[in-house]
Amino acid sequence: MFNIKPKEDTFFNIFISTGKITYKASTQLRSFMDDLANAEENLKNIKETEHEGDRNQHLMRQELNKTFLTPFDREDIYLMANGMDDIIDLIESSSSRFVMLNVSNITEEAKQLADMIVKCCRELSIIMNELSNIKKYTDMEKHIIEINRLEEEGDKISRSAIKELFRSGEEVLEVIKWREIYQYLENTLDSCEHVANIIEGVIMKNA
């Protein structure tokens, strides 16, 4: 049955927890790149974090199914939760590519993209902590702008890296491997921006 009494704290607490999990996954991705000699073992840790995110996603769906009054639009809550889960999934998928494709080296461009993912996820975690003050938290917009800036910068780095791949004279197999890795990293940044854009819409509705 629907619960008519507002349960705002439950939703906000899940978002705060998801923000922490997302940031944790991003830092694990960055550390993963510095220790490719132990890639398979380190990937297990990232997968465990991804499972934490899945559990939070399940909790959010449960709350949405049984709660009548939500802190803001039900659809927006669902989209935000789904978007955060997508980020974590893409971080896990990006890491998995190194193991699946047997990549044992790292590039500076991949590190730069991972650094940007960490920064974006930190900004998202800050926003998640302030969602309960969405009507008063005027600084939220600056975090959204920073995520948009990082995504745009990451897009430039990814395109440049792929361009250089095709000019480098590398074996075709190496080009294919790295193009896929760069694409997954870029997709992760795109997902961060997607969530930030959803949040911006929520701010406009609730300001």
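(the above was protein one; protein two follows)
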Amino acid sequence: MSDPVLPLVAEAAPAARLRSLWTNLDFVKLWTGQTISELGSRITREGIPLAAVLVLHAGTVQMGFLSALGGAAVLVFGLVAGVWVDRLRRRPILIAADLGRAAILVSVPAAAVAGVLSMGQLYAVAALAGILTVFFDVAYQSYLPALVAREQILEGNSKLALSSSIAEIAGPGLTGILVQLITAPIAILFDAISFLFSALMVLLIRKPEPPAVPREPEHLVTETLAGVRFIFREPTLRALGLRSATTFFFMGFFGPLYVLYAIQILHLRPALLGVVIAMGGVGAMVGSVVAPRIVQRFGLGRTFIVASLVQGLTNLLIPLAGLVGTPGTLLFLAVACLMVPQLFGDMAFMVYNINEVTLRQTVAPEHVLGRVNAGMQLLARGIWPIGSLVGGFLAAALGVRATLALAATGVVLSTLWLLASPLRRVR
């Protein structure tokens, strides 16, 4: 049986003979803007939960709602974003999303200075920024194939993942320092500025974007669900989608609980927590560099399966930190239990994610690519808020550490979707 995945592997060798994307000035502009934006986003990703815990003294249920709202936008707007991205030019969507997020985030430090910051505002900021992030991410993943040669899509995704990794290394440590020096709400101002810079870099890209492919009018529901239908008709994408849905449901448990667990149960200071999370950036950076080599050496199927297992198994160390890091024991053991999944789990996640996005961009036709990307986001980040809500309530009933143990186990079991699919035989 022919497999649409094979061109992805077959074209890796010709890609090596092309000039590096670092010589493509338009790609460098996109990469630079995304690097700065990712750095700012890391500050907000940790800064909003820290503002909720340290400034507003939020509990587990409130943290669950806060984490859920950030991802609920995918559930509501994900498929709609896919339709827009396939109908319109993608670069203006990227610029508008960046400018909108800058305007939304600047309200947090403004409210803090005025002394009126509340959980209600944090909920609104998380929801509105989440909506714009959905449009940005779908357009971003669909824009890359129009900016670089098809044979360089894997390299482009790898380099853009490197951008995210750099931010993962510098962002958490910088966040911890900023939170201690100027408080969490004021630190979020840096993210607003980063989005303005990102919008400027995308605006400066000179390569014309091809117009959207004209299509026959379709029923709105049929057009909206086209990406999801494509995913479930294509066996490899179907397995990846079901694995993502399962993984992100259980990873959603970590969203509202990780910062609370580290600060209130393990008693880590924000700066030390920033260092711990920064190890994830180191792992992600390594993963972004080695991802193309790993898939060429071991094949696509094995790469996905092993990366999924590593991510789940290392996460089992996180609840273990609550045993070895209780008062009267050595704190460094607890920190080590948090650092290992950050380092190796994030490395595995990055290898997995780069190859998954590249597979999508290679298999999906141009006219439906935006909706396929949106459908995969729905099966990943759209499931996250459901997990966040469930995790928040389970933590209130079972305790934080038991809930985190359940989450890690669920991530391990999500690999069964890959093992039961044709993907495991793709070399």
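Reviewer note on protein two: The chain has one domain: 6-11+21-425.
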